[in-house]
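Entry type: protein chain
Record version: 2
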Amino acid sequence: MPEPLLTVRDLEAWYGESHILHGVDLEVRTGEVVTLLGRNGAGKTTTLKSVMGIVERRRGSVRFGAAELIRLPSNLIARLGLAFCPEERGIFASLSVEENLMLPPVIGSGGLDRGAIFDLFPNLRERLRTQGTKLSGGEQQMLAIGRILRTGARLLLLDEPTEGLAPVIVQQIGATIRRLKAEGFTILLVEQNFRFASTVADRHYVMEHGRVVDMIPNRALASRMDTLHEYLGV
């Protein structure tokens, strides 16, 4: 089995006085796609933000390869090779598609060039001069993902990439994630739609009340569906 690229142990996190994570344990191996599943408020997004160091307070251990991240600021964490694509996408209203795409610095080898990004997302090539916020929701998501693919990051953290998108765009995002996996990218994905998650992921961690309560290999998902429905309340 590949070595873990990301190892999280006993991770706790706070927003102000609110204690959100209560000892999260998980790992993501090199080349895997892993999802965090759970109801709203389970701590999935906070887990991604805690890995990136963008919560008010955290403790425990977050290791990226041999590097311990728990005391590092988010800018140094990003330069080690992690990239975060937030649910709200973070597109700059005053910048064009091209300017948004080229904004993040390249921090390592292995990133996709513009041509490869346009192969993944042909819509972006056609909208290069368009202001970012004049794009459709699906195009904004493509831009947000394309932007971090340039950087050379080795671990991609994607927060709800299919939220609110039309089914045809969801299919395109799924095809993109599968292609990125085939090209060697490692992805930790927060996803509400477990049916979508089952089409892209190797393993699924289930979260409740700020903790990981189960890990389900994708190959076992069908046999564990009743349990998963109980966890997710569907």
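Comment: The mean pLDDT is 94.
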